[in-house]
Amino acid sequence: MRHTPRKHLLSYAILILGGILMCYPLVWMFFASFKTNSEIFASKNLLPQSFSFDAYITGWQGVGEHSFSLFFINTLKLVTPTVLFTVLSCSVVAYGFARFSFPKKKLYFALMLSTLMLPNSVIIIPRFLLFNKLGWLDSYLPFIVPALFACYPFFIFMMVQFLRGVPTELDEAAKIDGCNAVQTLALVLYPILKPALFSAGLFQLMWTWNDFFNTLVYISKVEKFPLSLGLRISLDSASAVAWNQIMAMALLSILPLIVLFFFAQRYFVEGISTSGIKG
Fold first, then answer.
1. What is the pLDDT of residues 160-188, one digit of tens each?
2. Which of 202, 195, 228, 223 has the alpha carbon at shortest distance from 213?
3. Domain 62-273 belongs to what architecture?
4. Nearest 10 degrees: Cα torsion 89, 91, 93, 98
5. Reported pTM
């Protein structure tokens, strides 16, 4: 028992050190947004010689007629329906696998999980050909429609595992009270599923917000570029890159994710660490 405080201090010290190492790139990016190119590449000092918000003002103007406000709006147009449809559709499919019995259920569940083994590079060409025939290129439909039809087996599996830990007596009690399957899911299980729903939503939000490869493949018009592609064209637009502006816009692009994760981290951790009701 005498060594317990020392063990705690050692654990805290390791966690603090790990936190500093994880946060240092963000801190460096913040201070680099106030530096000139010569300071960024030549100076070893973390702090800039002077603080000026010119990089944020100039960088926000974007490239040509397209400012970063347009890229932010495009990102919201892409991310918002994708996240909402993913959470809704995957929870409905997970509810079916976890609570209902139907022919070849185990086979369908195994086939659904087998799609997790396919890397994105394998299916990107068939998807591109399909979306091209449907006329969905240069739009956000290649992201929104798959989310509407629960094409994310990772989230389905996560919610199925969560629902398996929820007592079926709750469903039976809701049925006795006159609830059908839809009402049971909406009124009884969704409040319990809230941690898993938050986790799925945050994962999908981060993946879609930061997605560069798929947006580059499906979107070619600059006026529809999200933030990931907007940052890229900022590098291509000038022979001499103003890295302080790139750092400033990169920091602003990830700031919403940092704030959201900070306020929703309790649900995020609970959703990926639990598989039902405890206590």
1. 988 988 888 989 999 998 999 999 999 99
2. 228
3. Orthogonal Bundle (1.10)
4. 180
5. 0.86
